[in-house]
Amino acid sequence: MLATNKYTAPANPAKLFPELTRMRLVNGANLWSLRTTSPGLTKVIISYVNPELFASQPFTAEMTFQLMKSGTSDLDTFQFVSQLEETGVMLSNYVNADCGTVEFVVLDDQLEALFPLISSMLQDPSFPEDEFERIRALGLQNWKVSRKQTHAVARDHLMSVLFHGHPYGVTIVEEDITGMNPDDVARFHAEAVINSKPSLFIASYNPEDVCKLIENGLIFSEKPSINSRDQIRLSAESNAADEAFRRIPMDGSVQSSIRIGRRLFNRTHAGYVAGKVTATILGGYFSSRLMANLREDKGYTYGVGAGLVSLARDGYLTVSADVGNEHVNDAVGEILKEIERMRSERVDEEELNTVKQYIEGSTLRELDGVFSQLSLLATLDRQGLDAEWVNGFFQVLYGISSADVQNFSNQYLQEQDLIEVICGGNNQANI
């Protein structure tokens, strides 16, 4: 007989975030720095957090941060890109529902040459019309392709219902793309970047030197930040009852995408860790209950998953699966059956301990290396948290019991509170 898999907390958890320093720049922007163990590369993250703005204008935000890399008032696109390439920088501009981010990794000896280019990109982009048209056309093409993908349509419908009347519920429509012009991008840039103070995160062998370069070489607004956490008040309106179940037909689709979820909370909530454990047991890893049922036993799907998604100002739980049209009703029934099991039965200690070990291991893998730690710091900062949250997370994880999992399930996974969205072939009209 196999021994029970016993999970115990490490006697002395590994110290994370060595030599972490926080400072406030002269203009009031916050800066976090981590010291790397060897010279060579520096990583910098510049994050403009404003969920109300970025969530409510997703395509404009994407266009703005992509176009910022297309030249400045002094350098056309070719000149700007050529000078960036000379530094060897790995530069990435990206957005999500919470923020816009400029992130780069560069050789230490190229920092002085790079910072004037980054400063010009942030403060004085030219938004050339030919690049605007090229990027917009590509965005329109990608959006049209996504409208033929059941998983993309189901995801957007679920978000629009979960966050009804809330910026997180905004989804892109064709008019957002075709009706945009360069002036819209310039206005968004002024609000999101020029008139906003970012949070900065650096990982370097000599972080003090990089901090000096930032203060001397990067220009940020002296105005009060428009994205202060004290000033943001996102709508708390809940989903409309008449939208609690939707079937979206898609002609010609041989499969259907199932999305089931409910609005919950983010990492700042006391129930977050119990929720993460519960979602992982349900469908958060390969040996989860939903995988064992829908994939291994029934053969309805190649993959099914569940997760607790943490955003800057909110969060939600979601279950997702793509199945053949003929299996839709059975698959939904099995998902709800597994959720009911979470409410009615306590998970045994061996399964609970396995999941705790999985979560601990996957979290530590995400923290493998200073650059990865820096990315987590930026994520935590968006939610008003700091590095201490990680140690607290592990301590709470160690103490989660089967009763905690069942209590969470009974409080937050009642069937009447779950939103179902199904997109695919052979579906009825929207209900």
Summarize the structure.
This protein is of the alpha+beta class and about 425 residues long. Helices cover about 45% and strands about 20% of the residues. The model is unreliable at about 1-5, about 10-15 and about 225-240 (pLDDT under 50).
Q: What's the helix-strand series?
A: EEEHHHEEHHHHHEHEEHHEEHHHHHE
Strand content: 15-25%
Rg computed from alpha carbons, rounded to a whole number of angstroms:
23 Å
How many beta strands in the DSSP annotation?
11
What is the assembly state of the chains in this entry?
single chain
Bulk shape = globular
The major beta sheet can be summarized as:
6 strands, mixed
Query: Unreliable runs, pLDDT <50, ≥5 residues?
Result: 1-5, 10-14, 224-242
| Helical content band | 40-55%
Q: Structural class, from secondary structure content?
A: alpha+beta
Query: Strands of the biggest beta sheet: in what spatial order?
Result: 1-2-6-3-5-4
Q: Report the span from N to C terminus.
A: 52 Å
Count of runs of 4 or more consecutive helical residues:
16
Residue-averaged pLDDT: 89
